[in-house]
Write a structure and sequence with these properties.
CATH class of one domain: Alpha Beta
Largest sheet: 6 strands, mixed
Helix content: 40-55%
Distance between the termini: 39 Å
Radius of gyration: 21 Å
Strand order of the largest sheet: 4-5-13-10-11-12
CATH architecture of one domain: 3-Layer(aba) Sandwich
Bound molecules: pyridoxal-5'-phosphate
Strand content: 15-25%
Protein backbone atom coordinates (compact mmCIF):
# COMPACT_ATOMS: atom_id res chain seq x y z
CA UNK A 1 0.00 0.00 0.00
CA UNK A 2 1.21 3.46 -0.88
CA UNK A 3 -0.02 6.74 0.58
CA UNK A 4 -0.52 10.10 -1.11
CA UNK A 5 -0.95 13.53 0.42
CA UNK A 6 -4.41 15.13 0.50
CA UNK A 7 -2.55 18.12 -0.98
CA UNK A 8 -0.71 16.13 -3.64
CA UNK A 9 -2.07 12.99 -5.34
CA UNK A 10 1.31 12.37 -7.01
CA UNK A 11 3.12 11.77 -3.75
CA UNK A 12 3.66 8.08 -3.04
CA UNK A 13 5.21 6.78 0.19
CA UNK A 14 4.92 3.44 1.99
CA UNK A 15 3.60 2.74 5.49
CA UNK A 16 7.02 3.04 7.10
CA UNK A 17 7.82 6.42 5.64
CA UNK A 18 4.34 7.82 6.33
CA UNK A 19 4.52 6.64 9.96
CA UNK A 20 7.96 8.09 10.59
CA UNK A 21 7.15 11.39 8.88
CA UNK A 22 3.72 11.78 10.50
CA UNK A 23 2.65 14.49 8.07
CA UNK A 24 3.68 15.26 4.48
CA UNK A 25 5.86 18.37 4.11
CA UNK A 26 3.09 20.02 2.07
CA UNK A 27 0.93 20.06 5.25
CA UNK A 28 -1.69 17.72 3.80
CA UNK A 29 -2.48 14.37 5.43
CA UNK A 30 -1.37 10.93 4.29
CA UNK A 31 -4.18 8.92 2.68
CA UNK A 32 -4.18 5.32 1.36
CA UNK A 33 -4.17 5.01 -2.43
CA UNK A 34 -6.90 2.38 -2.30
CA UNK A 35 -9.25 1.02 0.35
CA UNK A 36 -8.83 -2.76 0.73
CA UNK A 37 -11.94 -4.93 0.36
CA UNK A 38 -12.34 -7.72 2.91
CA UNK A 39 -13.87 -11.00 1.76
CA UNK A 40 -17.59 -11.70 2.32
CA UNK A 41 -16.61 -14.92 4.13
CA UNK A 42 -14.51 -12.96 6.60
CA UNK A 43 -17.38 -10.58 7.38
CA UNK A 44 -20.05 -13.27 7.68
CA UNK A 45 -17.86 -15.67 9.69
CA UNK A 46 -16.39 -12.99 11.92
CA UNK A 47 -17.44 -14.79 15.09
CA UNK A 48 -14.97 -17.56 14.34
CA UNK A 49 -11.93 -15.29 14.39
CA UNK A 50 -9.90 -14.12 17.39
CA UNK A 51 -9.30 -10.43 18.14
CA UNK A 52 -5.71 -10.84 16.97
CA UNK A 53 -6.71 -12.51 13.70
CA UNK A 54 -9.24 -9.78 12.92
CA UNK A 55 -6.73 -7.01 13.64
CA UNK A 56 -4.11 -8.69 11.45
CA UNK A 57 -6.54 -9.21 8.56
CA UNK A 58 -7.69 -5.57 8.70
CA UNK A 59 -4.28 -3.88 9.02
CA UNK A 60 -2.13 -6.14 6.83
CA UNK A 61 -2.96 -4.49 3.47
CA UNK A 62 -2.16 -1.05 4.94
CA UNK A 63 1.23 -2.12 6.29
CA UNK A 64 2.19 -3.95 3.10
CA UNK A 65 5.66 -5.45 3.25
CA UNK A 66 7.17 -2.83 5.59
CA UNK A 67 6.74 -5.21 8.56
CA UNK A 68 7.01 -9.02 8.21
CA UNK A 69 3.85 -11.02 9.02
CA UNK A 70 5.15 -12.70 12.19
CA UNK A 71 6.31 -9.35 13.55
CA UNK A 72 3.01 -7.67 12.63
CA UNK A 73 1.10 -10.46 14.39
CA UNK A 74 3.08 -9.76 17.56
CA UNK A 75 2.42 -6.03 17.25
CA UNK A 76 -1.35 -6.41 16.84
CA UNK A 77 -1.67 -8.91 19.65
CA UNK A 78 0.10 -6.51 22.02
CA UNK A 79 -2.09 -3.67 20.72
CA UNK A 80 -5.41 -5.36 21.52
CA UNK A 81 -4.58 -7.32 24.67
CA UNK A 82 -7.59 -6.06 26.63
CA UNK A 83 -11.38 -6.34 26.28
CA UNK A 84 -13.73 -4.42 23.98
CA UNK A 85 -17.17 -5.43 25.29
CA UNK A 86 -20.42 -4.41 23.59
CA UNK A 87 -22.76 -3.77 26.53
CA UNK A 88 -26.55 -3.64 26.13
CA UNK A 89 -28.20 -0.61 27.73
CA UNK A 90 -31.75 -0.54 26.33
CA UNK A 91 -33.56 -2.68 23.72
CA UNK A 92 -32.26 -0.48 20.93
CA UNK A 93 -29.00 1.00 22.31
CA UNK A 94 -25.74 -0.69 23.30
CA UNK A 95 -22.31 0.76 24.05
CA UNK A 96 -18.91 -0.38 22.87
CA UNK A 97 -16.62 0.14 25.86
CA UNK A 98 -13.19 1.23 24.67
CA UNK A 99 -11.78 2.12 28.09
CA UNK A 100 -10.38 -1.20 29.28
CA UNK A 101 -6.82 -0.42 28.17
CA UNK A 102 -3.96 0.82 30.39
CA UNK A 103 -4.92 4.53 30.40
CA UNK A 104 -8.69 4.01 30.30
CA UNK A 105 -9.37 5.70 26.95
CA UNK A 106 -9.67 4.46 23.36
CA UNK A 107 -6.46 6.26 22.40
CA UNK A 108 -4.56 3.33 23.91
CA UNK A 109 -5.25 1.31 20.75
CA UNK A 110 -3.69 3.77 18.31
CA UNK A 111 -0.84 4.73 20.64
CA UNK A 112 0.10 1.10 21.38
CA UNK A 113 0.12 0.18 17.71
CA UNK A 114 2.16 3.21 16.69
CA UNK A 115 4.77 2.80 19.42
CA UNK A 116 5.38 -0.82 18.45
CA UNK A 117 5.68 0.02 14.76
CA UNK A 118 8.23 2.77 15.50
CA UNK A 119 10.09 0.45 17.80
CA UNK A 120 10.28 -2.13 14.99
CA UNK A 121 11.44 0.46 12.44
CA UNK A 122 14.18 1.74 14.80
CA UNK A 123 15.24 -1.48 16.49
CA UNK A 124 18.64 -1.83 14.83
CA UNK A 125 19.13 1.85 14.23
CA UNK A 126 21.99 3.86 15.67
CA UNK A 127 19.66 6.83 15.61
CA UNK A 128 17.21 7.78 18.31
CA UNK A 129 13.84 9.19 17.41
CA UNK A 130 12.25 11.88 19.59
CA UNK A 131 8.46 11.89 19.78
CA UNK A 132 7.23 15.36 20.62
CA UNK A 133 3.56 15.67 21.47
CA UNK A 134 1.16 18.26 22.92
CA UNK A 135 -1.81 17.01 24.90
CA UNK A 136 -5.06 18.39 26.24
CA UNK A 137 -5.38 15.30 28.43
CA UNK A 138 -5.90 11.80 27.05
CA UNK A 139 -3.28 11.69 24.29
CA UNK A 140 -0.41 12.34 26.72
CA UNK A 141 -1.25 9.45 29.02
CA UNK A 142 -1.88 7.00 26.19
CA UNK A 143 1.37 7.96 24.43
CA UNK A 144 3.38 7.86 27.68
CA UNK A 145 2.12 4.38 28.59
CA UNK A 146 2.48 3.04 25.05
CA UNK A 147 6.05 4.30 24.50
CA UNK A 148 7.35 3.58 28.00
CA UNK A 149 10.70 1.80 27.86
CA UNK A 150 10.61 1.45 24.06
CA UNK A 151 14.18 1.29 22.79
CA UNK A 152 15.59 4.15 20.69
CA UNK A 153 12.52 6.32 21.28
CA UNK A 154 12.51 9.40 23.54
CA UNK A 155 9.14 10.95 24.35
CA UNK A 156 8.52 14.55 25.36
CA UNK A 157 4.97 15.52 26.30
CA UNK A 158 3.83 19.12 26.66
CA UNK A 159 0.70 19.80 28.68
CA UNK A 160 -1.03 22.99 29.87
CA UNK A 161 -0.50 23.59 33.59
CA UNK A 162 -3.70 23.27 35.64
CA UNK A 163 -5.82 22.33 32.63
CA UNK A 164 -5.66 18.53 32.71
CA UNK A 165 -7.37 16.43 35.38
CA UNK A 166 -5.25 15.20 38.31
CA UNK A 167 -5.49 11.61 37.06
CA UNK A 168 -4.47 12.62 33.55
CA UNK A 169 -1.50 14.56 34.97
CA UNK A 170 -0.28 11.58 37.00
CA UNK A 171 -0.59 9.32 33.96
CA UNK A 172 1.86 11.41 32.00
CA UNK A 173 4.29 12.64 34.69
CA UNK A 174 5.05 9.57 36.79
CA UNK A 175 6.60 7.02 34.45
CA UNK A 176 10.19 8.25 34.08
CA UNK A 177 12.77 6.42 31.93
CA UNK A 178 12.34 7.59 28.30
CA UNK A 179 9.18 9.62 29.04
CA UNK A 180 9.55 13.28 29.99
CA UNK A 181 6.80 15.78 30.70
CA UNK A 182 6.86 19.55 30.30
CA UNK A 183 4.28 21.54 32.24
CA UNK A 184 3.62 24.68 30.22
CA UNK A 185 2.36 27.92 31.74
CA UNK A 186 -0.23 28.41 29.04
CA UNK A 187 -3.09 26.77 27.15
CA UNK A 188 -3.27 23.63 25.01
CA UNK A 189 -3.03 25.87 21.95
CA UNK A 190 0.28 27.25 23.31
CA UNK A 191 1.62 23.69 23.71
CA UNK A 192 0.48 22.82 20.21
CA UNK A 193 2.15 25.94 18.80
CA UNK A 194 5.46 25.14 20.56
CA UNK A 195 5.40 21.63 19.11
CA UNK A 196 4.54 22.78 15.58
CA UNK A 197 7.25 25.48 15.63
CA UNK A 198 9.81 22.92 16.77
CA UNK A 199 8.92 20.62 13.88
CA UNK A 200 9.50 23.53 11.51
CA UNK A 201 12.85 24.52 13.10
CA UNK A 202 15.79 23.83 10.80
CA UNK A 203 18.48 23.48 13.45
CA UNK A 204 16.39 21.12 15.57
CA UNK A 205 15.65 18.95 12.56
CA UNK A 206 19.32 18.75 11.66
CA UNK A 207 20.35 17.70 15.14
CA UNK A 208 17.40 15.61 16.28
CA UNK A 209 15.12 13.12 14.59
CA UNK A 210 11.70 14.49 15.52
CA UNK A 211 8.29 12.97 14.96
CA UNK A 212 4.80 13.47 16.33
CA UNK A 213 2.37 11.00 17.88
CA UNK A 214 -0.84 12.91 17.37
CA UNK A 215 -3.94 11.50 15.75
CA UNK A 216 -3.04 12.50 12.20
CA UNK A 217 -0.29 9.85 12.14
CA UNK A 218 -1.57 6.91 10.07
CA UNK A 219 -0.17 4.41 12.59
CA UNK A 220 -2.51 5.91 15.19
CA UNK A 221 -5.42 6.40 12.83
CA UNK A 222 -5.68 3.05 10.98
CA UNK A 223 -5.74 0.57 13.92
CA UNK A 224 -8.82 2.34 15.26
CA UNK A 225 -10.77 0.29 12.71
CA UNK A 226 -10.24 -2.87 14.79
CA UNK A 227 -12.90 -2.29 17.41
CA UNK A 228 -15.66 -1.58 14.89
CA UNK A 229 -15.13 -5.17 13.75
CA UNK A 230 -15.16 -6.40 17.39
CA UNK A 231 -18.55 -4.71 17.78
CA UNK A 232 -19.83 -6.50 14.67
CA UNK A 233 -18.54 -9.78 16.10
CA UNK A 234 -20.70 -9.19 19.19
CA UNK A 235 -23.70 -7.71 17.32
CA UNK A 236 -26.65 -10.10 17.80
CA UNK A 237 -29.03 -9.24 14.98
CA UNK A 238 -26.79 -9.54 11.91
CA UNK A 239 -29.75 -8.90 9.55
CA UNK A 240 -30.07 -5.34 10.94
CA UNK A 241 -26.66 -3.64 10.83
CA UNK A 242 -26.04 -1.02 13.53
CA UNK A 243 -26.23 2.75 13.56
CA UNK A 244 -22.90 3.81 15.11
CA UNK A 245 -22.52 7.01 17.15
CA UNK A 246 -18.96 8.25 17.58
CA UNK A 247 -17.97 11.03 20.02
CA UNK A 248 -15.94 13.22 17.69
CA UNK A 249 -13.26 15.86 18.21
CA UNK A 250 -10.51 15.61 15.62
CA UNK A 251 -12.60 13.10 13.61
CA UNK A 252 -9.87 10.43 13.48
CA UNK A 253 -11.98 7.78 15.20
CA UNK A 254 -15.10 8.18 13.06
CA UNK A 255 -12.97 8.31 9.93
CA UNK A 256 -11.46 4.94 10.89
CA UNK A 257 -15.02 3.60 11.23
CA UNK A 258 -15.80 4.88 7.74
CA UNK A 259 -12.73 3.09 6.37
CA UNK A 260 -13.94 -0.13 8.00
CA UNK A 261 -17.33 0.40 6.35
CA UNK A 262 -15.69 0.90 2.95
CA UNK A 263 -13.77 -2.34 3.48
CA UNK A 264 -17.05 -4.22 3.90
CA UNK A 265 -18.14 -3.81 7.52
CA UNK A 266 -21.98 -3.74 7.69
CA UNK A 267 -23.17 -0.36 9.05
CA UNK A 268 -26.60 1.27 8.72
CA UNK A 269 -25.46 4.83 9.42
CA UNK A 270 -22.84 6.87 11.26
CA UNK A 271 -23.63 9.61 13.78
CA UNK A 272 -20.87 12.18 14.34
CA UNK A 273 -21.61 13.27 17.91
CA UNK A 274 -20.10 16.67 18.68
CA UNK A 275 -20.39 19.04 21.63
CA UNK A 276 -20.72 22.83 21.24
CA UNK A 277 -17.72 22.73 18.90
CA UNK A 278 -19.83 22.46 15.78
CA UNK A 279 -17.61 23.24 12.79
CA UNK A 280 -18.68 19.95 11.16
CA UNK A 281 -22.43 20.14 11.98
CA UNK A 282 -22.30 23.66 10.49
CA UNK A 283 -20.59 22.35 7.37
CA UNK A 284 -23.47 19.92 6.81
CA UNK A 285 -25.90 22.87 6.95
CA UNK A 286 -23.99 25.41 4.89
CA UNK A 287 -21.73 23.13 2.79
CA UNK A 288 -18.83 25.49 3.42
CA UNK A 289 -16.17 24.48 5.91
CA UNK A 290 -15.34 27.19 8.42
CA UNK A 291 -12.91 26.52 11.32
CA UNK A 292 -14.07 28.05 14.61
CA UNK A 293 -12.43 29.14 17.86
CA UNK A 294 -12.47 26.30 20.41
CA UNK A 295 -15.24 26.39 23.04
CA UNK A 296 -14.63 24.74 26.45
CA UNK A 297 -17.15 22.03 27.35
CA UNK A 298 -17.62 19.12 29.77
CA UNK A 299 -16.44 16.69 27.08
CA UNK A 300 -13.08 18.42 26.76
CA UNK A 301 -11.33 15.81 24.58
CA UNK A 302 -13.75 16.90 21.86
CA UNK A 303 -13.08 20.62 22.24
CA UNK A 304 -11.71 21.09 18.74
CA UNK A 305 -12.64 24.06 16.59
CA UNK A 306 -10.84 22.90 13.44
CA UNK A 307 -10.90 19.08 13.31
CA UNK A 308 -7.74 17.99 11.51
CA UNK A 309 -9.03 14.62 10.25
CA UNK A 310 -12.24 15.94 8.69
CA UNK A 311 -10.35 16.42 5.43
CA UNK A 312 -9.85 12.64 5.39
CA UNK A 313 -13.62 12.12 5.68
CA UNK A 314 -14.13 14.43 2.69
CA UNK A 315 -11.38 12.66 0.76
CA UNK A 316 -13.06 9.31 1.39
CA UNK A 317 -16.28 10.63 -0.15
CA UNK A 318 -14.49 12.37 -3.01
CA UNK A 319 -15.72 15.70 -1.66
CA UNK A 320 -19.26 14.72 -2.68
CA UNK A 321 -21.47 16.19 0.04
CA UNK A 322 -24.61 14.33 -1.07
CA UNK A 323 -23.09 10.87 -0.63
CA UNK A 324 -21.50 12.04 2.64
CA UNK A 325 -24.94 13.02 3.96
CA UNK A 326 -26.38 9.61 3.08
CA UNK A 327 -23.87 7.91 5.38
CA UNK A 328 -23.20 10.40 8.20
CA UNK A 329 -25.38 12.71 10.27
CA UNK A 330 -23.73 15.13 12.70
CA UNK A 331 -25.29 16.34 15.95
CA UNK A 332 -24.17 19.10 18.28
CA UNK A 333 -25.07 18.32 21.92
CA UNK A 334 -25.02 20.97 24.69
CA UNK A 335 -23.49 20.60 28.16
CA UNK A 336 -27.00 20.82 29.66
CA UNK A 337 -28.14 17.82 27.58
CA UNK A 338 -24.91 15.96 28.38
CA UNK A 339 -25.47 16.32 32.13
CA UNK A 340 -29.11 15.33 31.76
CA UNK A 341 -28.10 12.18 29.85
CA UNK A 342 -25.54 11.18 32.49
CA UNK A 343 -28.20 11.62 35.18
CA UNK A 344 -30.89 9.72 33.26
CA UNK A 345 -28.73 6.84 32.10
CA UNK A 346 -27.46 6.35 35.63
CA UNK A 347 -30.79 6.61 37.43
CA UNK A 348 -32.95 4.79 34.86
CA UNK A 349 -30.60 2.21 33.33
CA UNK A 350 -27.92 1.90 36.00
CA UNK A 351 -25.24 2.77 33.45
CA UNK A 352 -22.72 5.50 34.15
CA UNK A 353 -21.30 7.04 30.96
CA UNK A 354 -18.43 9.53 30.79
CA UNK A 355 -19.26 12.96 29.28
CA UNK A 356 -18.00 11.95 25.80
CA UNK A 357 -20.07 8.77 25.74
CA UNK A 358 -23.04 10.78 27.04
CA UNK A 359 -22.80 13.15 24.06
CA UNK A 360 -22.85 10.16 21.71
CA UNK A 361 -25.77 8.48 23.51
CA UNK A 362 -27.79 11.71 23.28
CA UNK A 363 -27.17 12.00 19.54
CA UNK A 364 -27.92 8.32 18.88
CA UNK A 365 -31.12 8.51 20.88
CA UNK A 366 -32.30 11.54 18.84
CA UNK A 367 -31.62 9.66 15.60
CA UNK A 368 -33.41 6.49 16.73
CA UNK A 369 -36.52 8.49 17.74
CA UNK A 370 -36.92 9.25 14.02
CA UNK A 371 -35.81 5.81 12.76
CA UNK A 372 -37.72 3.46 15.00
CA UNK A 373 -36.87 0.25 13.13
CA UNK A 374 -33.12 0.73 13.60
CA UNK A 375 -30.78 -0.18 16.46
CA UNK A 376 -27.37 1.10 17.32
CA UNK A 377 -24.41 1.48 19.62
CA UNK A 378 -22.28 4.38 20.77
CA UNK A 379 -18.57 4.33 21.55
CA UNK A 380 -17.64 4.83 25.21
CA UNK A 381 -14.28 6.48 24.57
CA UNK A 382 -13.15 6.94 28.19
CA UNK A 383 -13.82 5.53 31.64
CA UNK A 384 -16.06 7.89 33.68
CA UNK A 385 -13.47 8.04 36.47
CA UNK A 386 -11.21 10.09 34.20
CA UNK A 387 -13.88 12.79 34.40
CA UNK A 388 -14.95 12.23 38.02
CA UNK A 389 -15.08 16.01 38.59
CA UNK A 390 -17.94 16.21 36.05
CA UNK A 391 -19.68 12.92 36.76
CA UNK A 392 -19.64 12.61 40.57
CA UNK A 393 -21.53 15.88 41.28
CA UNK A 394 -24.29 14.71 38.89
CA UNK A 395 -24.79 11.26 40.42
CA UNK A 396 -23.81 12.28 43.97
CA UNK A 397 -21.78 9.10 44.25
CA UNK A 398 -18.09 8.31 44.29
CA UNK A 399 -16.76 6.18 41.42
CA UNK A 400 -14.66 3.24 42.47
CA UNK A 401 -11.09 3.64 41.25
CA UNK A 402 -9.80 0.95 38.88
CA UNK A 403 -6.54 -0.69 39.94
CA UNK A 404 -4.53 0.99 37.19
CA UNK A 405 -5.44 4.35 38.73
CA UNK A 406 -4.93 3.30 42.36
CA UNK A 407 -1.40 2.33 41.44
CA UNK A 408 -0.38 5.76 40.17
CA UNK A 409 -1.99 7.82 42.95
CA UNK A 410 0.95 7.24 45.29
CA UNK A 411 3.57 8.15 42.69
CA UNK A 412 5.19 11.58 42.54
CA UNK A 413 4.82 13.88 39.62
CA UNK A 414 7.95 14.78 37.70
CA UNK A 415 7.71 17.57 35.17
CA UNK A 416 9.80 20.46 33.92
CA UNK A 417 7.94 23.76 34.33
CA UNK A 418 8.27 26.01 31.30
CA UNK A 419 6.94 29.35 30.07
CA UNK A 420 5.00 29.11 26.80
CA UNK A 421 8.07 30.06 24.77
CA UNK A 422 9.31 28.13 21.74
CA UNK A 423 12.91 29.28 22.33
CA UNK A 424 12.91 27.67 25.79
CA UNK A 425 11.69 24.38 24.36
CA UNK A 426 14.41 24.45 21.72
CA UNK A 427 17.07 25.09 24.37
CA UNK A 428 15.69 22.17 26.39
CA UNK A 429 15.70 19.79 23.42
CA UNK A 430 19.26 20.72 22.42
CA UNK A 431 20.50 20.42 26.01
CA UNK A 432 19.15 16.85 26.07
CA UNK A 433 21.54 16.00 23.22
CA UNK A 434 24.63 16.81 25.24
CA UNK A 435 23.81 14.30 28.00
C1 LIG B 1 -9.66 11.99 21.77
C2 LIG B 1 -11.00 11.69 22.33
C3 LIG B 1 -12.19 11.83 21.57
C4 LIG B 1 -12.19 12.37 20.16
O1 LIG B 1 -11.67 11.48 19.22
P1 LIG B 1 -11.29 11.97 17.74
O2 LIG B 1 -10.68 10.81 17.09
O3 LIG B 1 -10.33 13.11 17.94
O4 LIG B 1 -12.55 12.43 17.09
C5 LIG B 1 -13.39 11.45 22.15
N1 LIG B 1 -13.44 11.01 23.42
C6 LIG B 1 -12.34 10.88 24.19
C7 LIG B 1 -12.48 10.41 25.59
C8 LIG B 1 -11.08 11.21 23.68
O5 LIG B 1 -9.98 11.09 24.45
Amino acid sequence: MQYYSTNNKNLSVDFKEATIKGQPSDKGLFFPQEIPLLSKEFISNIEQFSKEEIAFEVIKPYVGNTIPDDELKKIVSQTVNFEFPLVKITDTISTLELFHGPTLAFKDVGARFMSRCLSYFFKDSDKKITVLVATSGDTGGAVAAAFYDVENVEVIILYPSGKVSSIQELQLTTLGKNIRAIEVDGSFDDCQRMVKKSFADKELNEKLFLTSANSINIARWLPQQFYYFYAWQQWKDKSTPPVIAVPSGNFGNICAGLLAYRSGLPVAHFIAACNANDAVPDFFKTETYQPKPTVSTLSNAMDVGDPSNFIRVLELFNYDVESLKKMITPYSVSDVETKQTIEELYSQQGYLPDPHGAVAYTALNSWLQLHSLQKGYFLETAHPVKFYDVVEPITGEKIELPNTIKMILSRTKEAVRMKADVALLKEYLLAGLKK
